[in-house]
Amino acid sequence: MSKPLTAPATIMITLPDGTQKELPHGATGYDLAASIGPGLAKAALAVVVTNAEHPEGKIFDFNHALQDGDTIRLLTKKDPESLEVLRHTCAHVLAQAVQNLYPSAKIAIGPAIEDGFYYDFDIPEHTLTPEDFPKIETEMKNIARVGQKLQQRPAEDAAALVQKIRGEGEIYKADILEKYQDNATLYYCVDQKSGEDIWFDVCEGPHVPDTSWIKAFKLLSVAGAYWRGDESNQQLQRVYATAFWSKDDLNAFIERRKEAERRDHRKLAKELDLFSIKDEIGPGLVLWHPNLGVVRQQLEEMLKKKLRQGGYDVVYTPHLAKRDLWDISGHTSHYLENMFHMEIEGQEYLLKPMNCPMHTMIFKSNLHSYRELPIRLAELGTVYRYEKSGVMHGLNRVRGFTQDDAHIFCRPDQIKTEIIDVIQLIDDIFKCFGMAFDQVELSTRPEKYVGDIDDWNNAEAALQDALKEYGLDYEVNEGDGAFYGPKIDFKIKDALGRSWQCSTVQLDFNLPTRFGLKFKDSDGTDKQPIMIHRAIFGSLERFAGILIEHYAGAFPLWLAPTQVAILPIADRHIEAADALAKQLKAGDVRVTVDTGSDKIGAKIRRAELAKIPAMVVLGDKEAESGTVSVRWKGTDKTDETLTTEAFIQHIATTVGNAF
Ligand SMILES: [Zn+2]
Ligand SMILES: [Zn+2]
Prior knowledge:
Blueprint: E1 10-14, E2 20-24, H1 29-36, H2 38-43, E3 44-50, E4 58-61, E5 71-76, H3 82-101, E6 106-107, E7 112-113, E8 116-122, H4 133-146, E9 149-154, H5 158-167, H6 171-179, E10 185-190, E11 197-202, E12 216-226, E13 235-244, H7 247-262, H8 265-272, E14 275-276, E15 287-288, H9 290-309, E16 313-314, E17 320-322, H10 323-329, H11 331-334, E18 341-344, E19 347-351, H12 356-364, E20 375-384, E21 400-410, H13 415-431, E22 436-443, H14 453-470, E23 475-477, E24 487-493, E25 499-508, H15 511-514, E26 519-520, E27 526-527, E28 530-539, H16 540-550, E29 564-568, H17 574-586, E30 591-593, H18 600-609, E31 614-618, H19 620-625, E32 627-632, E33 640-643, H20 644-656
Parallel strand pairs: 16-20, 22-23, 29-30, 29-31
Antiparallel strand pairs: 1-2, 3-4, 3-5, 6-8, 7-8, 8-13, 9-10, 10-11, 12-13, 14-15, 17-19, 18-19, 20-21, 21-28, 22-24, 24-25, 25-28, 26-27, 31-32, 32-33
């Protein structure tokens, strides 16, 4: 006969430092904190539970009942994860406030996201606008001020509750509860004094203990979103917002956001005439206007020089190819829905989404000996990828773009040095823009992979060695590599401290097999080369967008569409201005003459708005003396007087040293 199951009177909890705490059965996070000290009971707001069920650790509410054997970390405001708990709780407060103000509002979901949170509403009789925000924020403040207790409770008779709230029109909440009804939990706001339930939502948490923790928040914007992200469902109103532990943190965030808006490349594109995307051409297809054309030319010049120095061969390949090529490469079996196609003379053609198969065909055109390797083929290859028009975003997400692409075909023993050279190249290039590595990630073999396990192990070791030898800190994303090879992703930090994924180095054991690539090794046998895909900027379009925001449109001298604005003081100085412009152009300087009839002050202002790096004011004195009086943008220095030759020389030297 087995003994009756009785709960033990106490449970044993382990703290992160290994110390053990014995607590009464049913003890909560709060009880644990209180057993350590009253200060901690006040400072902590949630628990991170690690046990067999949650080996990675999971955040629970502070009133979560701890289990015997749990390892518990108490979460305070100092822990970065706690911000998510605050933000998600604030989302419920937003929902509660909206329902208080708009009684017909139905609530859907409200997760924390990067930099904040959102909540989705269905409000039949009202379309929310930012004008409604102050009113909603005031209501949220009221809810926060009274300090409603927040409790997590299991949904006891879930089926009945589903029916009840569906009857009240809360169809989204009912759907969620129905889906999770076997072990659904509810979020309750409880009145501090009366102990009565005031409001509830369906949610598994985690939340802060009560609403008084919410002190600094702001509603940011409102946008349309479909229920469950499905366009065939009801469109909801999504309110984006954010919350921080302190007003200072919130204000700093709002300032950063304003600065990012001021630098938005789509806004600057209009002000500075940089690029456009037209309805008649189609979404995600970019027109580079002359001003951004100059920037691109400079980027291309830089690349050409670095490629020559790096031992690359430049190739050019067509924008489309017969289906046959994409059948060999495998694109038709896993990438077809992203490819544009057409039929000509009964033959199917596909626009290239990648350059790789074209480069393998070039490699394959000749026999190669081991002595010739590595062969590095580079191309500014324009590719087309179908993406839904809804996700297009300025230069960040487009359908047609040019990659600064290259493929290195090498022997296995050359992987490490090739990778080091690529890292050096990436480092050198981004330094020219005052940008540095932010994060470097190595992604290794996934469960499903092609190729030989030894090749994978050797390649991964070579990548690690290269990163170490270069002295880069990196993270390993175990099992996150593509099925065909490990890769390194490089994130770059811009002037606002934002991180951008640009460069990638990807090893490939798949395409060389599919295309039957080989080289003659020193022992006379045929071997398969290693293929390395690498891009530095990634896409020139996207990188141009990053650069516009990085410089806030004020490009440095070497990239500036117009480097010098000559501003004649009066009409009688135009002739001398034109003569000076001619001289500067001959010295390869990009120059414009402002022949407007307005006063010099207006001309200076115009040049400043156009963010031109140098202004030359030309009056009687300069016209006679043949000198130039230069005002450099962004410096407090008074005008500098130089000879025309010295001015041209100065610009040439600055540009020449840029890369
Ligand atoms: Zn919740
Ligand atoms: Zn490639």
